Amino acid sequence: MSHYYTIKQSGSHEVIIQRSRFIGHLSRAYSEEEAQAFINKIQKEHHNASHNCFAYIIGEQDQFQKANDDGEPSGTAGIPMLEVLKKLSLKNSVIVITRYFGGVKLGAGGLIRAYSSVTSDTIKEIGAVKRSLMQGFTVQIEYPLLGKVENHLQGSTHIIEHIDYLENVILHVYVSLDQQASFKDELINITNDQVTISESDQRYVEENISLF
After folding, report:
1. What pLDDT is stored for residue 1 in this prediction?
2. Distance between CA atoms of 16 and 18, rounded to whole angstroms?
3. How many C-beta atoms lie closer than 10 Å to residue 99's C-beta?
4. Calpha distance 27→22 (Å, rounded)
5. Which pLDDT tens digit goes with each residue over 116-141?
6. What SS3 class is residue 69?
7. Which of 16, 63, 22 is nearest to 42 (CA)?
8. For the domain 130-209, what is the CATH code?
9. Segment 37-46 long-range contacts (CB within 8 Å, at least 24 positions apart)
10. Do 205 and 132 meet the contact criterion of CB atoms below 8 Å apart?
11. What pTM was estimated for this model as a whole?
């Protein structure tokens, strides 16, 4: 995939609805085994909760999807949670919502709204990222060119990961796959071809995004 969206990091967020405690727990998962391990961990930590409902969506084509109501009326918890993940186009993400029953029954419609909103609120609280597959380059220049090159890169969509100040300056830069040729041309032009550009690794680079 050239890019995809996923959650920023693992975390939890608590909401009180009609005296019931709802705690959303989020994590990344790159396999069903990872997702299940996270689910099991939350279930053990909250073994005395009324319910530990979960949903996950994994794979480039969202090929691994699962939702579980854990004792709530069928279709009122896991599926609404999964639908939020799908609506936000999140991949490789698992959510568990722990519920401690507060004595007030919400009804089917109320449960669907509760589990949907807690999923959304937890994602909003934890945050999301766009992961883009980018090509790494090392850019070697002499010191007098650093200001011009650094200013150009900072005003572009390219990402400077770090800079080594050695005999010459070496910038480690990540570039979108479809901008590799133009990236090289830009640097050759602004340095009058006084630059050495070498490919390094290819990896996903993250940037924070807002889904709401």
Report:
1. 83
2. 7
3. 25
4. 17
5. 999 999 999 999 999 999 999 999 99
6. coil
7. 22
8. 3.30.70.240
9. 38/94, 38/96, 39/94, 39/96, 42/96, 42/98, 43/96, 46/98
10. yes
11. 0.85
- Model pLDDT, residue 148: 96
Q: What is the pLDDT of residues 152-185, one digit of tens each?
A: 999 999 999 999 999 999 999 999 999 999 999 9
What φ, ψ does residue 186 adopt, rounded to 5°? -60, -45
pLDDT digits (tens, 9 = 90+) for 17-73: 999 999 999 999 999 999 999 999 999 999 999 999 999 999 999 999 999 999 999
Chain segment 77-108, per-residue pLDDT in tens: 999 999 999 999 999 999 999 999 999 999 99
The domain limits of the chain are: 3-126, 130-209
* Overall CATH class of domain 3-126: alpha beta
Beta strands 20-28 and 3-7, pairing class:
unpaired
DSSP 116-165: HHHHHHHHHHH-EEEEEEEEEEEEEE-GGGHHHHHHHHHTSS-EEEEEEE
d(CA 143, CA 180): 24
Q: In sequence order, which residues have a C-beta less than 8 Å from that of residue 125 and are 6 or more positions away?
A: 11, 13
How much is the pLDDT for 70? 97
**Residue 107, C-beta contacts closer than 8 angstroms, at least 6 positions apart:** none
Q: Which residue has the tokens 């990872």?
A: 34
